[in-house]
Specification:
Number of domains of chain B: 2
Distance between the termini of chain A: 80 Å
Helix content of chain A: over 70%
Radius of gyration of chain A: 44 Å
Largest interface: A-B, 118 and 112 residues
Strand content of chain A: under 5%
Shape of chain A: elongated
Strand order of the largest sheet of chain A: 1-2
Largest sheet of chain B: 2 strands, antiparallel
Distance between the termini of chain B: 40 Å
Oligomer: heterodimer
Number of helices of chain A: 40
Number of helices of chain B: 20
Structural class of chain B: mainly alpha
Number of domains of chain A: 4
Strand order of the largest sheet of chain B: 1-2
């Protein structure tokens, strides 16, 4: 195999446009010339590079370039150029070069032209990458890139709504198709077992026989048909005409829309040849062919006409591919090339007209051939090629199309006859709209009232059109000598051995296809003459199907999907209220629990509970009654609920004592005390009643809601109780507890097993839990930081108001004197108690390791001492005297606990390894000393700090709240929140 | 010597750093402490991962008590992987945090914020690293409570409400977990995960164990925001400061997922969870419905943070879907997406943070004109967005790719197609932002806006670049996820 071009040049072909795109993106906004020069140079270099590769591919060789990416999965970056890829890459680069030249003159200097060229180059790179992909995934990737960059190009004039909508629509349709394609190639790769294009193309038999063939086929075709604007996905293409004309010329002639055709031809050996292929591709093709051609006749916008004509021609190519015949494939590829040349030139001509006259409306244009004779002639030749006039390239491929249409491979007679009829009809339509384009724009009386005076464009702007039109003519006259070899190379690389005999002759003798051509030409002219009066009336849209607007359907769908559906879903599922969230949460849990029980069944265990002691049973009855009462009263009588809750807590406490767990009982008691006080402080600030902001609803709803909530609550509560009962009536397994009991003293050095577990066996959990406590305090602090009491709870409580009123009414009393008189004795006792409680706390701390007590309990006890002072002295009194800085206490406590753990490292032991010994002290005698004690001291400090922080944060609200109330009464602005002195340094 | 103690140092370091923040409050010092702690933790997690790959499972016996009696830190390929994700993203986010927090939170009580951050960080690491079921709960509580503080530091007063709602729901979720652990303990008498696994599997599908399983799965699902238990998440991410959104999105839900995986695979075992109790089906259904519903809702949002929050829920669907397949490929895909999603959401939220820093709002309108005025920020946003959509050459692609492969491999064809289609929804909501940023003129009242400062851009770009890097050099995320999947699946399903 002759190697004239190193394979490594392939990445250059793909990479250059991207690199240049980046460079162009950085050029200054007004560097029109530089950007055009850069883009042109890159396109020309690409053409040259591709041309250099021709000898290799012509000899049947394949250029390959491979980079490893995820080799384990067979996913590599592969560039692969065979004859077919070469042909398309060449078209992309060559027409690209002409487009750049044209755009240089077309684009206005006011537009940010470098950005335009940057997008154009990136698009060119993506297109090249797509046709050169040697790997399915990579192909899908570049495919999506073409969608993306075409979007940017179509939306280039993003300041107009038309451009934005058109661009968005194009992106939505083609990118959605691209995703289908992606899914499709995944399936295909799965069938084949590899994503390498070579292997996929070689296993056509296997693929077609596979049960997943249809899935893969449909998905891949969805990708191809959306891209190639086939019915019913054609609607995006006309709207993409909002793009600058060079973009339309490029996208809709040689590149974007041809990608779908390319894909179908590329996968031809793997996917084609089945009934399913014929029906899907053929139906889409023939429908598009007819509808596109029909609608094109009635367009008043030159570009709109060309857009629908493009759709129709793409339908023709698709139909050819769908016929499942090899010659059909040849004709399809040939027509794709021809269409690229004449359609690009026509778009450019339309652009020139627009550029020079300021309008593209056929109804306003007229007689232009007198103002721009040269352009007129070029356009006429190109339009003639489009209509299929002999001696032009369009004629050749149309002849082949007719020949194939006559041989449609179906047993169904009706279909067999319909295809040729449809082909002639569509050709006649295409003659009609070509005539309309030429006659409407260039002939007739002189135009009136045009935005600009028409004249010939700069000659370099016309140059690309000249080149393309010349190509149309040369190919039309000497097909075999010009494009013959290229076409042959391309076809051979697809079909290999199966390449059929075909002839690229202008004259095939008097045959049926020729007859059909003549009929179409005459019919088309006749139709134009017949329709001329109707067309001049200027009615928008094509008769009969005017109301079937695919775009409107699309818009409605999008609005539904992206707006209504989302809003409904958000309404149903995105609630921001807490109550439904909680309800959902509990329901999910209950449902999951029920499912689990349903799977396994639930019954009591194998142990029969011992008959309960009547005394304990009574205590428990009280506890249960209080708990239910608390739930009952929680909403409107919070204080009552809190008291009842306290009783329930006490019952738990008693239960602990009953079952000989003094440590737990002690902790429970202290926790009850502290939390009750904190809750009281907090409840004070809740609004008195829950205000329902919504309009009153019928009682039935309220009742239903209440009943539902009740049911959920009962199910959850009873469920938990049942579970607990079921679990506790089973033989307990060998618990860790036995182990702890056995080793607490021997290895942990303490006789209080609970404490040894807490500070030693599972000391790390305790460290975690005190951290939790610390964070809880921080959370309270953080949440209260910007707390503002509800308006109705700012008032002073009734008792305080009465007392203050009394003080105010008696001139000898100073404010607050009544209260302090009343509380004189209790406050004295409490203050005396303060040090006593602290001593108790220290005592509990020290003896913790062997007897009930420990750092946590000690800390809580100390906190109770502080709370008592608050109760008696009032917030201000305490705040002025408090020296505990809670945050520092917490920090230091945590540090002490952690460092104790770290100290074990000094002895080469893991974190938190404990150590204990007995210390002989004078006077005290032998004192047990465990490292756990230091740990406990840390716990102690942190608990005090955390409890105090919460206390201050909550209690301070009363000071702040009343100041706000006073200020608003006196009509003053709200004073800045005053910070509690103990936290004064915390800002 | 220190090398032996790396496991505990991983958790204790931020735990010590947190009180230090309270004690040393000089200007910027708390931030510096947090940054140093985070970066050291990041380094430690890297060392741990290397150690696990070279010598296998690491066990650290806290207090020198041998498991199952004492608490054991047990590091295998799974949690070493998650540790790296959590600490890595945090390392980038903390750098981002300094200026971002100054703008959104102010100097006052800065130290409190970093204390809460460090505690949350410590909690997340502790949950991940521990080999003890109850210890896991304790650290889960630390991280959750820390999260409430972090969310409450948002500028908007609604942050308080969001934090409060999350507090209520999160507490219920945590209660479920502790109840589940309690049942397990009642049944088996042990808390060490390995020990538990042996005993649970010996008991088989006993009612108590099934109930414990249910509680643990529901509790963990709430933490990881599995649809429909995700309702707390959008508000929390929206009103939290940008740095917190980035931090939480990249770490908190990931650790939640880890907890689920740990319970389901290590403690109960795949055989029990997926064959006896067929957990796969409900998980897959919820994941799929969640993917579509929340992605659709994301399209509708007008606040970009809220949009990304809904997107997070959808992305969690991908991870859970991978897990629910319970094959090697599936679990690996789920874990890979965990890794990748941390990177992409980190990058996206940081980019939004840059916009908030300059424009002062994360509403869609605030993005108008950002494409030209903050090109680097928007480029990072686009990179993250492309990764989120899952285009090749980004990390997002790799995860989705394996997920689709796993679904195909399992024979769940339609699901594979649905996964690909659901990416389209991501295209739409990312697109909405891109369109506004590049094609809409800035609001007149916005005033002059310039590119975000380097201190914000660099971390943002580090994360954005990681999305590209791990889409091309896939050895860490792909092999790591496979090693992790192997470590929990054992021979199951192969």
């Amino acid at each position: 195999m002759p190697q004239t071009m190193p394979d490594a040049l392939l990445p250059l072909v793909v990479g250059l446009p991207f690199a240049a795109a980046i460079v162009a993106g950085f050029l200054s906004t007004h560097a029109r010339g530089a950007a055009a020069l850069l883009a042109g140079a890159v396109a020309v270099v690409d053409v040259v590079l591709i041309w250099v590769a021709y000898p290799t591919v012509a000899g049947g060789g394949v250029l390959l370039f491979e980079l490893e990416w995820m080799p384990a999965l067979g996913l590599n970056f592969v560039l692969r150029m065979d004859g077919f890829a070469w042909l398309f890459a060449g078209l992309v680069a060559a027409i690209g070069a002409l487009i750049v030249l044209y755009a240089r003159y077309y684009m206005s200097p006011e537009d940010p032209v470098p950005r335009f060229f940057s997008f154009l180059l990136a698009f060119m790179g993506s297109m090249t990458g797509m046709v050169l992909s040697g790997n399915l995934i990579q192909l899908a990737f570049f495919w999506e890139l073409t969608s993306l960059f075409s979007f940017l190009l179509i939306g280039y004039w993003y300041h107009t709504a038309q451009a934005r909508d058109g661009a968005r629509m194009a992106l939505t349709v083609t990118a959605a198709g691209g995703l289908c394609l992606f899914a499709g190639v995944l399936v295909l790769g799965h069938i084949v077992g590899s994503y390498e294009l070579d292997r996929v193309l070689a296993s056509g038999e296997h693929i077609r026989a596979h049960p997943l063939y249809l899935t893969a086929l449909i998905l891949i075709l969805l990708g191809a048909l959306t891209k190639s604007a086939q019915f019913p996905f054609h609607f995006w293409l006309p709207h993409a005409m909002a793009a600058p004309t060079p973009v339309s010329a490029y996208l809709h002639s040689a590149t974007l829309v041809k990608a779908g055709v390319f894909l179908m031809a590329r996968f031809w050996p793997a996917l084609a040849g089945t009934e399913a292929w014929f029906w899907i591709v053929g139906t889409a093709g023939v429908t598009t062919l007819l509808i596109g051609a029909y609608v094109a006749i009635f367009q008043h916008d030159l570009k709109g006409l060309l857009a629908y004509s493009t759709i129709s021609h793409l339908g023709l190519i698709t139909l050819l591919l769908g016929l499942n015949s090899e010659v059909g494939l040849v004709a399809a590829v040939f027509h794709a090339m021809n269409h690229a040349t004449f359609k690009a030139s026509l778009f450019m001509a339309a652009g020139i007209i627009d550029h020079e006259t300021g309008t593209r409306d056929i109804r306003r244009l007229s007689g232009l051939h007198r103002f721009m004779p040269f352009t007129a002639r070029l356009a006429m030749v190109a339009a003639a090629a489009m209509a299929g006039v002999p001696l032009l390239n369009g004629f050749l491929s149309k002849e082949m199309f007719f020949a194939e249409a006559l041989r449609a491979p179906t047993s169904h007679l009706l279909i067999h006859d319909l295809i040729p009829v449809g082909a002639v009809l569509a050709s006649a339509f295409s003659v009609t709209y070509s005539l309309r384009f030429i006659h409407g724009a260039f002939f007739g009386p002189d135009p009136v009232d045009l935005p600009r005076v028409p004249r010939e464009p700069p000659s370099w702007m016309r140059f690309p059109v000249e080149i393309l039109v010349l190509a149309c003519i040369i190919v039309g006259i000497l097909p075999a000598a010009t494009v013959g070899p290229f076409l042959d190379t391309a076809i051979r690389s697809i079909l290999g051995e199966a390449t059929p005999q075909y002839s690229l002759e202008v004259w095939h003798g008097l045959s049926q296809p020729l007859l059909m051509s003549v009929v179409a030409l005459i019919g088309g002219v006749a139709l134009y003459l017949a329709l001329q009066r109707h067309l001049l009336k200027g009615v928008e849209g094509a008769p009969l199907i005017r109301r079937l607007d695919a775009r409107r359907i699309f818009d409605r769908t999008m609005v539904f999907l992206s707006w209504r559906l989302a809003r409904t879903l958000e309404g149903v599922l995105g609630t921001r209220r807490l109550q439904p969230q909680l309800r959902l949460m509990l329901c999910v849990a209950a449902l999951a629990g029920l499912c689990a029980v349903y799977v396994r069944g639930l019954g009591p265990g194998n142990l029969f509970p011992a008959p309960p002691d009547p005394a304990l049973a009574l205590v428990w009855a009280v506890g249960i009654a209080c708990a239910i009462g608390a739930a009952w009263k929680a909403k409107f009588h919070r204080l009552a609920a809190l008291i009842l809750l306290g009783v329930a807590g006490l019952v738990t406490c008693v239960t602990f004592v009953w079952f000989s767990a003094p440590d737990l009982a002690l902790t429970q008691l202290l926790v009850e005390v502290v939390t009750t006080v904190l809750l009281l402080l907090g409840l004070r600030w809740l609004p008195k009643r829950f205000e329902v902001g919504r309009p009153p609803e019928p009682r039935v709803y309220t009742l239903a809601r209440h009943l539902t909530d009740l049911a959920i609550a009962v199910i959850a509560g009873v469920g938990m109780a049942a579970l607990a009962f079921a679990v506790m009536t089973r033989t307990p397994p060998e618990l860790l507890a036995q182990h702890f009991l056995a080793r607490a003293y021997t290895e942990g050095g303490g006789t209080n097993v609970v404490n040894v577990i807490l500070v030693d066996f599972r000391g790390f959990d305790t460290l975690g839990e005190i951290t939790v406590l610390g964070v809880v305090a921080l959370t309270v602090f953080a949440l209260l930081r910007r707390f503002r009491p509800a308006a109705d709870s700012i008032e002073l409580p009734e008792q305080q108001r009465d007392q203050l009123a009394y003080d105010a009414a008696h001139p000898r009393q100073t404010d607050g004197e009544t209260v302090s008189d009343w509380l004189l004795v209790p406050s004295l006792i409490t203050r005396v108690l303060f040090p006593v409680i602290w001593v108790i706390a220290l005592f509990l701390l020290l003896r913790g390791h062997d007897l009930p007590g420990g750092g946590f309990v000690a800390g809580l006890t100390a906190a109770v001492a502080l709370i008592l002072q608050y109760l008696i002295g009032g917030t201000r009194w305490i705040e002025d005297r408090l020296t505990v800085q809670p945050l520092r206490w917490m920090g230091i406590g945590l540090l002490i606990a952690t460092t104790t753990g770290l100290a074990a490292w000094l002895f080469g032991r893991p974190f938190l390894t404990s150590y204990f010994d007995y210390l002989e002290l004078p006077l005290f005698g032998t004192v047990p000393l465990a490292s756990a004690l230091f740990f406990d001291i840390g716990v102690f400090a942190l608990v005090i700090g955390a409890a105090t922080l919460m206390l201050i944060a909550l209690a301070h609200q009363s000071v702040r709240g009343h100041r706000v109330a006073q200020a608003s009464e006196e009509g003053q602005p709200t004073p800045p929140p005053r910070q509690a002195p103990a936290l004064a340094g915390e800002d | 010597m220190i090398a032996v103690h790396l496991p505990i140092l991983q958790v204790v370091l931020p735990l010590i750093a947190a009180p230090l923040c309270v004690l040393f409050r000089a200007r910027d010092l708390p931030w510096a402490i947090a940054a140093v702690a985070t970066w050291t933790a990041f380094a430690i997690s890297g060392l741990l991962l290397a150690q696990v790959y070279s010598v296998g499972v690491i066990s650290y016996e806290i207090g020198d008590w041998a498991p199952p009696w004492g608490i054991e830190y047990r590091i295998d390929a799974l949690n070493a992987f998650v540790l790296l994700v959590v600490s890595g993203v945090s390392a980038a986010v903390i750098l981002f945090g300094r200026d971002s927090m100054l703008a959104e939170f102010g100097r006052s009580r800065e130290y409190l914020f970093y204390t809460a951050y460090l505690l949350t960080f410590c909690g997340l690491l502790g949950v991940t690293i521990t080999g003890d079921a109850f210890n896991l709960f304790v650290f889960l509580e630390i991280s959750s409570l820390g999260t409430y503080v972090l969310i409450a530091s948002g500028n908007n007063r609604r942050a308080l409400l969001a934090s409060y709602q999350y507090l209520i729901l999160g507490t219920i979720g945590a209660t479920f977990i502790v109840i589940g652990v309690g049942f397990l303990y009642a049944m088996t008498g042990t808390l060490n995960m390995v020990d538990l696994a042996g005993r649970v599997q010996a008991y088989g599908a006993n009612t108590t164990i099934v109930v414990a399983f249910t509680f643990l799965v529901v509790g963990a699902s709430l933490k990881l925001a599995l649809f429909p238990l995700h309702l707390w998440l959008p508000a929390a991410y929206t009103y939290a400061p940008s740095m917190v959104s980035a931090f939480l999105a990249a770490t908190a839900t990931k650790v939640g997922l880890y907890v689920l995986v740990r319970f389901v695979f290590t403690i109960f075992g795949p055989e029990f969870s997926f064959v006896t109790l067929s957990l796969g089906l409900p998980l897959a259904i919820l994941a799929l419905v969640g993917m579509f519903v929340t992605s659709t809702v994301a399209i509708f949002q007008n606040d970009v943070k809220r949009m990304l929050a809904f997107s997070s829920v959808a992305q969690i669907g991908y991870m859970v879907l991978g897990i629910s397949i319970h094959t090697m490929l599936g679990v690996a895909a789920g874990l890979m997406h965990l890794f990748n999603h941390a990177l992409m959401k980190g990058a996206l939220f940081c980019a939004v943070g840059c916009i908030v820093y300059r424009v002062g709002s994360s509403r869609l309108d605030a993005f108008a004109g950002a494409g030209r005025r903050m090109p680097w920020t928007m480029a990072a946003f686009c990179t993250g967005g492309i990764s989120l959509i899952g285009l090749p050459l980004t990390a997002g692609f790799v995860g989705k790719w394996y997920l689709v492969l796993a679904l195909i491999d399992r024979g769940w064809w339609p699901l594979a197609v649905l996964v690909v289609l659901s990416s389209m929804l991501a295209v739409i909501y990312i697109w909405r932002v891109v369109e506004v940023a590049y094609f809409r003129d800035p609001l007149p009242e916005a005033g002059p806006v310039e590119e975000a400062p380097l201190s914000l851009l660099l971390p943002t770009w580090a994360l954005a670049f990681a999305n590209i890097w791990f889409g091309i050099e896939t050895s860490l995320n792909v092999n790591g996820a496979f090693a992790a999947a192997e470590s929990i699946l054992g021979g199951f399903g192969s």
